[in-house]
Structures
1.
Amino acid sequence: MVAGFDRCGITCIHETAVAEVRQQMIADDEAQALADTFKTLADPTRVKMLFALLNRELCVCDLAAVIGASDSAVSHQLRMLRTQRLVKFRREGKIMYYSLNDNHISTLFKQGIEHIGHS
């Protein structure tokens, strides 16, 4: 690799470009929330769980069976996904059914899958 290949050959600041982007820059708290979301998505087990929930609402036991994990492991991961507002649940008697929290999660996931399939 050539040293400095990913850097400019000279130091110069394009003031107009910098000012324009700074004006539109994401706030620190939003950047942290987005980073936290991506950290949550960085686990293959949680990715599989969300992928399963893209298709349909599932109870904890069914979700565990789909991904081949224990109920307690799935329950632990679901707590993390709920904290990040990626999934929601509803109770029907003693059964907890989980689904994606909103369409944004589905869109994010579908675009991610499309991205990794793009050569």
2.
Amino acid sequence: METSVRLANILCAALAASLLAGPVLAEGFPARSFDDLAALDLRLIQEQKKKPEAGDLFFNPSPDDGGRAVASYTGQSRPIDLRKQAFIIAFASSGAGNEDYSRLYQREYLFKAGGKDYWLPVQGQVSRYFAQELKPGQPVALYVRNAGGFRGAQAWDWVFLVEEFDNPNTPKGAPPAKKGPVIPPGPKTAV
């Protein structure tokens, strides 16, 4: 009897946690454009008072700098290019407990927003739902983690990691339909 009561309590706690996780996820992703996300990174880089040079890496230390960005789904995908994959591995390695995080990203998908093309890495568990729920040209709300970026010869190449997606008309504050794994904490900010 005691074991069944304990099991019932554990199941109730797990159910409550899963119901609360959706709204918490949505709250952590305010509506932001990709330009807004890049501006957040540029502001953090400027605060470092160091002139960026080609080859520099910047890891955004705040898991709160992600956003819910609306874009148009194109249906096109490709394997993540080697530079971006190396960045994701380094980003994941910078956080305690994130060693497996980079393995979630194997492909990037083309989205269009604000007249620009964005090749965005998408978690494999999440992208499996694209064919079922999205059609090319359809708007989609992307829940992205602003990981930072790497500096090319002339400009930054920003890395926005898609951790979830939903209909862009979902009411503000409503949780997305959960498709992906639990999101690990962001990178370490102190040594």
3.
Amino acid sequence: MKTKPFVATFTILFAATALAWQTQEYKSGIVWPEPPVIDPGPPGGVPSDAIVLFDGKSLDAWEGGDKWKIDDGIATAAGGTITSKQKFGDCQLHVEFATPEEVKGSGQGRGNSGLYLMSRYEVQVLDSYDNKTYFDGQCGAIYKEQPPMVNACRKPGEWQTYDIIFNSPRFNSDGSLHTPGYVTVLHNGVLLHNHFELLGVTSYTEPSRYIAHADREPLQIQFHGNPVRFRNIWLRENIKPLVGAPPGLGAKAGGQ
């Protein structure tokens, strides 16, 4: 049976209308500022908007840095913990480290150090390659709070990387907690913690709890008696999402 002309025309028009409806672009109406342009640097290099905390030449950016040994672009932990002269809040932190190639000790006594965000919240550094210890104290742990999802350690003496995204806690005027801190940690490119909610200040002797502090505090790298080596330490503070404005109001300058 032949299709009637009216039915055929209607079918074609309906299909065309449906196709146009399916491909109609969604627009939010938000007026976005332009994302700033940065140079990401060469592979393994430093982004142009980063604050360089150790470039292989000096530890002038650190209190106590004169106690550590610098040789051939590498800083070796010695003599005490170092504390950044600048204070930071929310940030992206990149650190490269190597535990001693000559293995001495075991458990917590082997290649021990730590990164203390805001001088309070520790991401553990340890030689956890074929080295047993308590899981919330092994390399990549949020110390005494959360073990890493996996053990991604390289062999002793080999260079390793930490890439950490940190959202600092916020406190009310009366000192009570307004918003907890969160941390994301990648070890050698492998995700260990995904936006983990910090329980409070790192402590060896008691459960973690929050104690009010300023919105910006120094970074610390621990000396725990082991000659852990460090290089290429940098930090970015530009980690806030862009903020758009409704139509007619224009975009907020800088988007931050």
4.
Amino acid sequence: MSHELAHSWTGNLVTNANAEHFWLNEGFTVWADRRIQEALHGEEKAALDWVIGGHGLEESLARFGKVHP
């Protein structure tokens, strides 16, 4: 829920011109979501979220490749 709330805050500030720039909107949203989670649940939860997110990124890069369109 905090991720979608963060979208409502960052979506109007950072809007992608097309699908190629979707990462920009999503990146700011994830950052805001992590700040919300840290405020609600503490630094340990925020650190865990960063590790889980980084692992997901590594898995995606391995699956799709670094140059996948």
